[in-house]
Amino acid sequence: AATGCLEVCTAIYPHTSWDCSWIHIGFENSSTAIAGAETANKALRAKGRIKADEPEPKFVAFGGDGATYDIGFQWISGCFERGHDMMYVCLDNEVYANTGGQRSSATPIGASATTTPAGSHSYGEKQNKKDMLAIMAAHGSPYVAQVAPNKWKDMVKKIQKGFDTKGPVYINAMSACTTEWKFPIHQTIEVSDMATDSLVFPLYEIIDGKELNITYRPKNIVPVRDYLGVQPRFKHLFKAENEYLIEEWQKRVDAQWEYLQR
To answer: How far is residue 21's CA from residue 101's CA, in Å, rounded to a whole number?
Structure first.
């Protein structure tokens, strides 16, 4: 696991929540650490130092969106280009949550973060969120998918499908963050539901870079405005001078959903 919220809350030395072999590695290079472990396993098996009848372990790397979309991206790209048999899971909370709430390239336009604060001269983040699923699918990955904890059955199926796939697998996991999204902790699943039902976080998979399957279609699609409204990081967008950003966001979400359904 990369240094981040997951590692910090599950492995405070000398204690750990991990009931398996694990490595705490730097912020940016969990992918190369797990790729090294996967390669070592192959080498040891080839030399007979691991018996052929020993079960093959699963190699999984974890990182936040800062470690994935930004400072660790070149390492991940290299691992996927080389075809390592591993899974990379991005816990996407759209911000560098462990280091002070700075924006990442997963931070959506209009969000107020510590390095892109909203105020009298700015509406917050100026860039649209990077499309990591499309980028990883373009690497020729045999399986990429987006998951969310509120749709846990869908998530379990995709993780199992990823484990059953040979080669580099990418999972983007929506991770609603009570600290940086500024909503009450007891609303985590409610906010997650609104993320998937507004189609801001659509749930789908891409197989072999070509076959796209939508795995969850909301019966009642929630307006993007309602999703943004439960997160104080977007409260400034409801000012008259910024309302156009919400309208533009809705149009982008509608266009992306139409594209995914083709």
So the answer is: 30
The answer to whether 188 touches 152, Cβ cutoff 8 Å, is no
Answer for the pair 63, 92: CB distance below 8 angstroms, yes or no.
no
For residue 55, whether the previous peptide bond is cis, meaning omega lies within 30 degrees of 0, is no
pTM comes to 0.96
Strands 211-214 and 118-119: unpaired
Question: Looking at this protein, which amino acid is placed at residue 85?
Answer: D
**pLDDT digit string (tens) for 2-31?**
888 888 888 888 888 888 888 888 888 999
Q: DSSP per residue over the chain, as a string?
A: -BTTHHHHHH--TT-----S----B-SS-HHHHHHHHHHHHHHHHHTTSS-TTSPPPP-EEEEEHIIIIITTHHHHHHHHHHT-S-EEEEEE-SSBGGGT-B--TTSPTT--BTTB-EETTEES--SPPP-HHHHHHHTT-SEEEEE-TTSHHHHHHHHHHHHTSSS-EEEEEE---HHHH---GGGHHHHHHHHHHTTSS--EEEETTTEEEE----SSPPPHHHHHHT-GGGGGGGSGGGHHHHHHHHHHHHHHHHHHT-
Distance CA 216, CA 60 (A): 25
Could you read off the pLDDT of 89-113 as tens digits, one per residue? 999 999 999 899 999 999 999 999 9
Task: Tell me the C-alpha distance between 154 and 42, whole Å.
Answer: 31
What is the Cα–Cα distance from 106 to 132, expressed in whole angstroms?
A: 9
User: Token pair for residue 179?
Assistant: 């600290």
Closest CA to 87 of 63, 55, 59, 68: 59
